[in-house]
């Protein structure tokens, strides 16, 4: 019999229970016991859901209050010294490392002021992990102050009568995805392998003693271009993790092609392997060939990254081909990756068009998919499910919803001139200087201002029809005026309207474009307590009417300072949506570029001549391996941005923004934006600044972490800017935060921006005298 498994399940709860309780804990509204109880309740629900669906191999330790990689750093005591100087509970150490902590002293507690660790994208997904940070003084050990999380959660499930397979990030990936701390920049994290392996072994022994006979150990870095030195570490690592007192290991990879690193794992003493055959089905022959006659093959055939129904006919045929190679008793039908990246339950979507809804499968439905495929290839009668699935696939294939001939005709008109500014940047800069007359070290923000409870309440009222469109517009205009007046008061040079009308930087546009569907409860975790509802690209994309002009024009009408029009770029709209899987990413991005081109030109015609088109996801979309696919991507990704932004006059200043990725200046140069702003506040390596020292256009390196509640002082801003100016020319430097401010509260925003502007004024005085 072929068995079924999943690699992980969303931990957020169908109604965002985890977010609500976590944020209430941060605000002091609930106790730590309340927070822990909510986590326990969610875990129990998820395990029971999987058991009831008939999943054979159910994961544990896939739950986290913030990030699963950060959990491992806390457990293994990879905690930089700056977080250990305070008497914090383990959960508060976790949150301090994830989001920073700034707390005034009280009669019973000392003051705390620490920044967060660096947060970057998890491979090419929109999930962010907290990067492990090591130093020469890192002492790995099991940090048992709050128990041993993987063991405790395994026992928790066992007490419910559910046997689980614990999930742990493997040692090579854990180290390779980490970084050296700022006081140990000469340290290569992989050199710590011998130090961390005994702790892995101790953890595995405790799991075995608790009754875990098998552990899923994730090594996702196997889909990257790994140096030979890193490849050689797999044998060393897994030879050390074998023993009678240790559970068997199933080594898991996902998100790409493992074949270039296959020799590194071909002789590992593990019980089995998992591979992503949704992304790379053509790797089956080669990966099957490395298996011994006892190792299992976990076939990742149900997409853990997208929401389209699995084509049962194709998936069944693929699994049967795997069975033909290794035998039914050694095949497991699984999701391609953790279901962390998908919404929880399609049944929560009462407002979706039933025709379109029938094409989708969320995390809960994917449980049934893996079980059905496993049963079908095992000879059980699943004919009814196969027939229903075939009807859904046929409905989508033949639907007129997916095709718009006018969009396809316009797509064919794209050429080089359509995606090139009229003159090069130096010529544009000369006329823009004359028009805007900005001071040295111009200050701005990235776009959004705090989304207060009042904003959310009124947006909800308007959505439900309890206030009129006129009443809602009056409310929004009042919020815009508040933001404009604040920016004038604090002394910012280029203003924003604050985006009070926007629910999310991608969802807002998806709801106004043809070719998208959107959900009511399709939440997916992006990081910590930040969840998004990705729109779904269901067909060819076009813009039926202006999306942002009204609010931007109103904001500009009440101030003499330039106000930026704010748009989300084509690649980010695509990457932060669930894309189509029946046409290429290039086609979808260029369609979005054309839709945004119309919006950019309408903004310019309405007098908005500073326009920011954000592309934080452009690095995220980069194929994980070097080669033709990567170079092709870079070409069409940059082209889609230029299609959106090149139809303007030389005096119109195009901005773009990038955050939470390891950026290559060459990727940004290809966009030809006049001004770019880049997340920078958590970068410790001075070489990162050097990489941008010859960037030809203007740049703002973000100066404070907007995902943290802490407030930098003026002196901290000054010190940060001084370091930047050692390698970057003052004449080209803008002063701005890391990202938008929607998740922050007004008191911290006001104080942080005031200190930032004061630092800019300090440098103006210094450089102008």
Structure description:
GO terms for molecular function: 5-methyltetrahydropteroyltriglutamate-homocysteine S-methyltransferase activity; zinc ion binding. It holds the Pfam family Meth_synt_1. The strands form seven sheets. An eight-stranded parallel sheet has the order 1-14-13-12-11-10-8-2. It has a domain of 323 residues: TIM Barrel (Alpha-Beta Barrel), CATH 3.20.20. The protein is α/β, with parallel strands linked by helices and 769 residues long. Strand 22, helix 26 and strand 23 form a beta-alpha-beta unit. The chain is built from 28 helices and 24 strands.
What are its keywords?
5-methyltetrahydropteroyltriglutamate--homocysteine S-methyltransferase; eight-stranded parallel beta sheet; single chain; alpha/beta; metal-binding; EC 2.1.1.14; UROD/MetE-like_sf; six-stranded parallel beta sheet; 28 helices; zinc ion binding
How would you concisely characterize the structure shown here?
This protein is α/β, with parallel strands linked by helices. 41% of the residues lie in helices and 13% in strands. Helix 16 (405-411) packs across helix 23 (585-605) and helix 23 runs parallel beside helix 24.
């Amino acid at each position: 019999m072929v068995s079924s498994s999943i690699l992980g399940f969303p931990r957020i709860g169908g109604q965002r229970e985890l977010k609500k309780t976590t944020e209430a804990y941060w605000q002091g509204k609930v106790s730590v016991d309340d927070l822990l109880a909510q986590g326990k309740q969610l875990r129990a629900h998820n395990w029971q859901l999987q058991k009831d669906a008939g999943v054979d191999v159910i994961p544990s330790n896939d739950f986290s209050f913030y990030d699963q990689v950060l959990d491992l750093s806390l457990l293994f005591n990879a905690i930089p010294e700056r977080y250990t100087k305070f008497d914090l509970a383990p959960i508060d150490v976790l949150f301090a490392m994830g989001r920073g902590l700034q707390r005034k002293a009280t009669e019973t507690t000392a003051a705390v002021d620490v920044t967060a660790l660096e947060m970057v994208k998890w491979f090419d997904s929109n999930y962010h992990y907290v990067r492990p940070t090591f130093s020469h003084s890192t002492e790995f050990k099991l940090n048992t102050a709050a128990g041993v999380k993987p063991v405790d959660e395994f026992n928790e499930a066992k007490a419910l009568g559910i046997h689980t397979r614990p999930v742990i990030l493997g040692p090579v990936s854990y180290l390779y995805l980490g970084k050296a701390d700022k006081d140990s920049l000469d340290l290569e994290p992989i050199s710590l392998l011998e130090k961390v392996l005994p702790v892995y072994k101790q953890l595995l022994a405790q799991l075995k003693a608790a009754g875990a006979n098998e552990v899923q150990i994730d090594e996702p870095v196997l889909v990257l271009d790994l140096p030979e030195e890193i490849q050689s570490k797999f044998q060393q690592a897994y030879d050390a993790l074998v023993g009678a007192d240790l559970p068997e290991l199933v080594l898991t990879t996902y998100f790409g092609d493992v074949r270039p690193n296959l020799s590194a794992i071909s002789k590992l003493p593990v019980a089995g392997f998992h591979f992503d055959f949704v992304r790379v089905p053509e790797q089956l022959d080669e990966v099957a060939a490395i298996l011994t006659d006892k190792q299992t093959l976990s076939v990742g055939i149900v997409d853990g990254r997208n929401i389209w129904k699995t084509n049962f006919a194709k998936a069944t045929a693929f699994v049967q081909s795997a069975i033909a190679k290794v035998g039914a008793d050694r095949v497991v039908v699984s999701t391609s990756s953790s279901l962390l990246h998908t919404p929880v339950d399609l049944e929560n979507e009462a407002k979706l068009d039933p025709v379109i809804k029938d094409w989708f499968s969320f995390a809960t439905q994917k449980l049934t998919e893996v079980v059905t495929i496993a049963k079908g290839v095992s000879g059980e009668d699943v004919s009814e499910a196969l027939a229903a699935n075939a009807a859904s696939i046929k409905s989508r294939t033949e639907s007129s919803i997916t095709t718009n001939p006018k969009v396809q005709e316009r797509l064919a008109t794209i050429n080089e001139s359509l995606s090139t500014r009229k003159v090069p940047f130096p010529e544009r800069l000369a006329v823009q200087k004359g028009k805007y007359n900005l001071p040295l070290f111009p200050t701005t923000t990235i776009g959004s201002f705090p989304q207060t409870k009042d904003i959310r309440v009124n947006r909800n009222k308007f959505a439900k029809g309890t206030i009129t469109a006129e009443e809602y517009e009056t409310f929004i205009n009042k919020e815009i005026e508040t933001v404009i007046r604040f920016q004038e008061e604090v002394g910012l040079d280029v203003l924003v309207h604050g985006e009070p009308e926007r629910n999310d930087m991608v969802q807002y546009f998806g709801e106004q474009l043809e070719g998208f569907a959107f959900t009511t409860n399709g939440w997916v975790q992006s990081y910590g307590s930040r969840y998004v509802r990705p729109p779904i690209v269901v067909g060819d994309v076009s813009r039926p009417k202006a999306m942002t002009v009204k609010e931007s024009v109103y904001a500009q009408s009440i101030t003499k300072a330039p106000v930026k029009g704010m748009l989300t770029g084509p690649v980010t709209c695509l990457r932060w949506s669930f894309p189509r899987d029946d046409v290429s990413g290039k086609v979808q991005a260029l369609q979005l570029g054309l839709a945004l081109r119309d919006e950019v030109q309408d903004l310019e015609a309405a007098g908005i001549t500073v326009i920011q088109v954000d592309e934080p996801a452009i690095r995220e979309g980069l194929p994980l391996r070097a080669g033709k696919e990567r170079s092709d991507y870079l070409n069409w990704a940059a082209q889609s941005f230029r299609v959106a932004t090149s139809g303007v006059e030389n005096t119109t200043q195009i901005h773009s923004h990038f955050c939470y990725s390891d950026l290559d200046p060459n990727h940004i140069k290809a966009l030809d934006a006049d001004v770019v702003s880049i997340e920078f506040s958590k970068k410790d390596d001075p070489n990162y600044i050097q990489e941008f020292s010859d960037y030809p256009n203007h740049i703002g390196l973000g100066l404070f972490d907007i995902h943290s509640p802490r407030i930098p002082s003026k002196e901290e801003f000054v010190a940060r800017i001084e370091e930047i100016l050692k390698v970057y020319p003052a004449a080209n430097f803008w002063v701005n935060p890391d990202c938008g401010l929607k998740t922050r509260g007004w008191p911290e925003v006001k104080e942080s921006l005031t200190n930032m502007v004061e630092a800019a004024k300090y440098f103006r005085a210094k450089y102008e005298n």
